[in-house]
Design goal:
This protein is α/β, with parallel strands linked by helices. The chain is built from nine helices and seven strands; from the N terminus they run E-H-E-H-E-E-H-E-E-H-H-H-E-H-H-H. Helix 1 packs across helix 7. The protein is globular, with a radius of gyration of 16 Å.
């Protein structure tokens, strides 16, 4: 049975890119939650207002468990709701964090609606993926990477260091956009 490295973060933070880079180094399989939901129809409804499919967790979680159990080696599970993986299967969680200005620009480049961009940038500012990961897996397994000013290769190297060494400077909760934006009087830009 495989053990999972979870790659989480808000949409646009680079989860897929990091997962691919790690998979090639670690010789790991990737389970992309969004891709799995789409490919196998594991959603309960379509939220037209948000232009998204709502994952059916009653079907998705057992399917993810089944896939992890079939894996003999390393497995990377990536998605912004990756905290659904049962704790007993998880070795480490890496949450990607990206400065709200950069994230907003990335999502605009993808052609997302203003509402969808605002909701996801607000979630990034509030650290919702980190909060969910800490709640699901505890502080000993959750780490964050602020990838705002890092190349894709540098993010992979930091992730490998986290997996190997578990350095304290990357513990979950170290990235705090809320405080930074408050000091710079920028919160009104995102919360209106």
């Amino acid at each position: 049975m495989g053990r999972a490295v979870i790659i989480s973060g808000c949409p646009g933070t680079g989860k897929t890119t990091l997962s691919s880079g790690l998979a090639s180094v670690l010789n790991a399989e990737i389970i992309s939650l969004g891709g799995l939901v789409e490919r196998e129809g594991l959603y309960s409804q379509i939220d037209a207002e948000r232009d998204t499919k709502v994952a059916d967790l009653n079907r998705l979680v057992p399917r993810v468990v089944e896939l992890i159990e079939k894996t003999r080696g390393n497995v990377i599970v990536e998605g912004h709701y990756a905290d659904i993986v049962p704790s007993s299967f998880v070795d480490i969680v890496i949450v990607l964090r990206t400065h709200p200005d950069v994230l907003s620009n990335r999502l605009k480049a993808k052609g997302w609606s203003e509402r969808k961009i605002r909701e996801n940038v607000q979630a990034e500012i509030l650290g919702s993926c980190t909060f969910n990961a800490l709640k699901a897996y505890g502080s000993e397994r959750v780490y964050e990477i602020d990838n705002t000013n890092l190349s894709n290769e540098e993010v992979v190297l930091v992730a490998l260091r986290i997996i190997d060494e578990k350095p304290g400077e990357y513990r979950g909760g170290v990235v705090n956009w809320l405080s930074l934006l408050d000091v710079d009087n920028q919160l009104e830009k995102y919360f209106y």
